[in-house]
Each structure stands twice: as structure tokens, then as C-alpha cells.
Amino acid sequence: SDDAPGPETSEALGVLHRVFGYDSFRGGQQEIIDHVVAGGDALVLMPTGGGKSLCYQIPALVRKGVGVVVSPLIALMQDQVDALRNLGVRAGFLNSTQDLDERRMVEAEFLAGELDLLYLAPERLRVEHTLRLLDRGQISLFAIDEAHCVAQWGHDFRPDYLALSELHERWPTVPRIALTATATEATHTEIASRLKLQDALHFVASFDRPNIQYRIAPKNEPKKQLLELLRTEHPGEAGIVYCLSRSSVEKTAEFLVAQGIDAVPYHAGLDARTRAEHQARFLREDGLVVVATIAFGMGIDKPDVRFVAHLDLPKSVEGYYQETGRAGRDGQPSTAWLAYGLQDVVQQRKMIDTSEGDDTHRRRLGAHLDAMLALCETVECRRVGLLAYFGQQSTPCGNCDTCLTPPESWDGTIPAQKLLSTVVRLKRERNQKFGAGQIIDILLGKKTAKVIQFDHDALSVFGIGTELREAEWRGVARQLLAQGVLGVEGDYGTLVLTDASSEVLNRQREVRLRREPEKASRTAKAKTG
Ligand code: ADP
Ligand code: ZN
């Protein structure tokens, strides 16, 4: 009958019990495993913490031969292999951190059929020596972990991954399973085509992480806001704070320590030993806060991370989702909190303008940023927006800031026109370049030294914006930038007009804005409790 497990299932289930000590499969694991055990190709899209590893580890144990796992996470290979060895699985790895002797030993084990799983860094597969080695052994499957690294559209492209398209040509009968936690429709299509996985079955798990409460707050005094979050909602709990730059990582970590919070920095500029030590402490200890650049976290499996905070705007929704996904793997309530401000938009647009690469590349970065901004500025449920980005439909969640405190939207056309008119005036006046700060001072009628120096108090727009407070004007400017109604140019973040600006100035376009909450939302507390 339909419910009777097939022979593969029972064997796979046996391995799940015996080797891994788990009772039952989760989510789509069983179908994926059955499919790969039977020799089929698979493309697996599953959120972080969903249980992707078993999807290739179990087929590798059930099928004859060695499962070859391609992973970019070189720093974690030793740990992964040690963990498997502790379970009695015969695992080894080959990467650039090993000396020749170590590599020779693993190669000998592989050839002697003494391995169940062999982890490889992608660049190993560019070396003819490795390919010939693989030819001489028996391969049960190829697992391509972090498969989004093959996609140029994605946010984490690695050129070494392109060579993986050749696996199929060289070993046409060996099943391949590609896995990723980040896949929009575009990335996912690109993975399938670059890896020549056209005939693979696609397994798409739900990307919803219901226990994570998503919150995006206007950035006022980010360190203070962060401290408040930690003290009131997550005292003594483990979490990750992401910052864009190494120096802000250092400063934020120092600040937290000075405030009595157990925090350490982590970024690529620290020496390897310090990094390893901080990572190990994070995994081992109960309530450590790691302040890090995005160099931290990939592949780290700590179940009780209670919050992930972003002090700077992530570059893409995919990155944001992956980073926040490190919270709450144990299913317990957790917070994803992001502080985001005008300067973030200015800075990121500037970085895109000055980035290396061709126009296509810049357009792609721009599209990633726009999607992230849309998520920040939405008045709808954050989760609905996030899941929609991954092509999944849902209904308002009741567990994000916009669901808990629905923001009002208001007609901001007139303030937008005032702000844009000021930009126009400054452009006409002389060839000077001014950022948002000066424009807002003019709107508010502030006679600052810089206003007086440039005679800006003589402009017709001087003081025409006193109906809004400074913070509100910053919100208006930020949202206009996010909507592309205002542009930014050059090194100093000079505000400039766009095509959409003229539509607003000519009254052909209405501007809807989100009302800024008075204070960073803490309304969610009850729900987190
Ligand atoms: P991913 O690679 O998708 O982020 P992992 O494979 O690291 O996720 O799995 C996340 C956690 O869930 C791990 O601690 C793993 O041991 C555990 N896990 C996976 N599958 C099961 C299962 N069927 N039953 C219980 N725990 C599981
Ligand atoms: Zn919601």
C-alpha cells in the first residue's frame, strides 16, 4: 500500500535512527533522500536550519561508494568531519588548509574505499589531480552545498563554482544534489541551468521561520537602540550583531563591553586565532554576543541564537534572510531586528555607483538594494513581503513589527515637492554639492554656519518645511531615496533629481510615505516573552 515504506525508506530510516539518533524525518527530507538514493538528481531549497545536511549524508551512507560534498565553507570542514566521525561516519576532507601529507592520507582512504563522505573545497575540482583521483574511486553522489554560489544573480557568487557544471559531463551516472538556503526564482533558475540540473527534481521547502519576529526600525542612535533591545528583551542571551565595516564592528563591541555586555568582535581583519577563539566561545558559551561583519555565521549551527541585529542595511533580501535565519534554529521565539536610516541608502547607492564591474553588474546590485529597501519601507506584513520575495504566498503573520503596530501611510506629496524644490534651488544657485543635512536645515529654516556661509537663508525655500520635525524630514528623504524619487551622487552623498522627481514636481505622481513611529518599536515584547 501507499503507506508502506519502500526498501530505501526503511534503510534510510534505519540510518537516521542508528547513526544520527533521530526519530523521524523532518519537512521534505524523506522524499529528497528517497529520490537521491534511487539515483535521481535534486535541487533542494530549504531555509537555514531546515536540515539540509541529512539530505545528502544519508543517501551517501545508503548508496555504494563515497559521497563527494562540495562546500565553500573551508573553515568549517574540520568541525563537520569531526562531528561525523563522532557519530561513526567515515568522513574526510580536502582543502587548502592541509599540507601535502594530510592530503595524501585522505586520498589513500578515499581510494581504499574507507570513506563514506569526502568534503571538497570547490577549487579542488579545478585541479586535474583531484579529478583523476575521483576517477579512480567509486562515487555514490555529488552534493553541492551552498549552491547559490554558482549564481551570478545571487549575492554570494564564487567563480570556482562555475567549474561544477563539468561534474555531470565527467560522471554522467552519478546523482547530484544541489542545496541552498537562499533562492529567489531568478537564483534558482540560474542554479539549475549553470549546474545542468534541468532534469533534477526541485524540492522547495517553506521559507517561513514563524518563531522569528522581524522588526525594522528607523535608525536614530543605533548603539543605544541596540543596547535597549539587548537589555529589555535579551539579557544574557546569545546573539549576533551585524555591522557593515570592521571599524564599526570594533566600536560596537567595545561599546557593548563597556556597558557590561559579554560581547566579542569578529571580522576578517582579526587574526585567524582570535577569530577561531571567538567563534568557539560563541558556540560553547550560553550568552555571548558576537559583533561581526557578514564574514561570520555561514554554516554555524548554534540552536539557541536568540537575536540577530543589523546595525547597517544588508545589501540584499537574500543576505538579510540568510543572516536573520541564524536566529532561533531551535524553534524558540527569536528576534530579527534591523536599524536602518537615510545614511544607509546614501552609502549603499554610492557603493554601487563606484563598484567595479560592468553596468549589468551595477544594475543587479541596484535591484537587490531596491528589493531590500522595499522590505524596509513596506506598510504591509514583513513576513508576507519576505516570503513573496522567495516566490511564496502567505497571509499577515501577526508576529512582525508592521503586524503588531500597523504603520500609517500618509500623503507625502507636498513635503516631497518642498524637498525636491530645495534640491532644484541648490542646483541652480551654484555648482556646490549638498547632502541631506543641509537640505533639511534649509527646510527647517535653521541659520547654521553653513547655511549662512552659502546664503541659503536667502533662498525662497528657506524655512518652508517647519511643519515636520528634523527626524521626520530625514524619514521623508530616506523614503524618497528608497523609492527612487530622489537620487544620490558622488562622494559626499549629494542629493540629485531623478526622472521620477520631475513627475512629483509636476504633480503627475503622488508620494505615499510611511509614518515614522515615535520610538523604536518595543510593542512586540509581549509576544516575544
Ligand atoms: P541546514 O544545513 O539546512 O542549515 P542542518 O542540516 O545543519 O541544517 O540541520 C540543522 C539542525 O537540525 C542540526 O542540528 C541537525 O542535526 C538537526 N536535524 C536535521 N534533521 C533532523 C531530524 N530529522 N530530526 C531531528 N533533528 C534534525
Ligand atoms: Zn507580519
From TrEMBL:
It catalyses: Couples ATP hydrolysis with the unwinding of duplex DNA by translocating in the 3'-5' direction. Belongs to the helicase family. RecQ subfamily. Residues 222-373 form the Helicase C-terminal domain. Residues 511-529 are annotated as: Disordered. Residues 33-201 form the Helicase ATP-binding domain. The chain holds residues 13 to 541 of 626 of the full protein. One of its GO terms (molecular function) is hydrolase activity. The lineage of its organism: Bacteria, Bacillati, Actinomycetota, Actinomycetes, Kitasatosporales. This is DNA helicase RecQ. It comes from Streptomyces rapamycinicus. It is an enzyme of class 5 (isomerase).
